[in-house]
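Listing S7. Sequence submitted for prediction.
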Amino acid sequence: MSNETEWAGRLDHTSVIFDNKMWVLGGRDNSRFNDVWSSSDGITWTQVTASAAWPKRNSHTSVVFNNKMWVIGGAGGTGAGDTRNDVWSSSDGINWDQATANASWSARFEHTSLVFDNKIWVIGGSVASGVAAGDDRHDIWYSEDGVNWTEADAAASWTVRRELSSLTFDNKMWVLGGTDLSSSSYFNDIWSTDLTNDGFTSASKLTYNAKGVNQHSAYINTTEQDYYRFTLPAGNYTFATIGATDTVCTLFDNSRTEIINNDNDGEDNNCQITHEVTDPTEFFFRIKRGDSNDSIDGYTFKIE
């Protein structure tokens, strides 16, 4: 291996594996870079371009998605926060296309990104290069094309942070560690999710009774909506909420495809869904507040 490479010493760059090569993109020393380098052995490096179409930056993220390399956000903007929310892609490292100059998520750096469920995800980070309270984020966004972005969760269960890491493992997304510099907090917590479009949590196991048999459900709370994951034997079932909270319920199959949605078929604005299960299978069930975006609480969920 090489102790020194052809590219200038740097930090806050990104690296990916693409086209059977290692790639180094951007970063900084005392100034920022937008060069792109590749190597097939880690010893000999080729400068693919000295100046990519995307502006110089550091603390961005990069992923490989749809047979392209992607560069996402980072520091090096012209605004007060010195941050960016542009998204770029390339199939060769030379020619770069701008998917969007202004993604729906706030410009940021020191975030994390991954590919999961055939989507690009942008998670957390900081919207400004300082350490003021309120700069760090715990929102979660995803895109199927790099152009159009959807907010999966405005406030995940884990606290705001930057310089976090993320990965996919065991069919889940994971978030690990990070820091909230405004409070001088450094984290060693670990969070995961196996649902798309929900928040992150350390899911707790609940026991419920279905047709006289005790089952176990993974319960996932995202403040504004709750998720349940369970397996049911064959039979006819009624899913319902009881309580003073106005609730909306949705049943999903094991591929997270919506089966049925209900608002007020239960008593006192509670929701109620009936469904026949022909073969034992896994389901997902979402309960969210029907009258506002406030926290979801004050209900009982039953399966009969």
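Caption to Listing S7: primary sequence and predicted structure tokens for the chain studied. The chain has two domains: 14-193, 204-303. The first strand starts at residue 14 and ends at 18.
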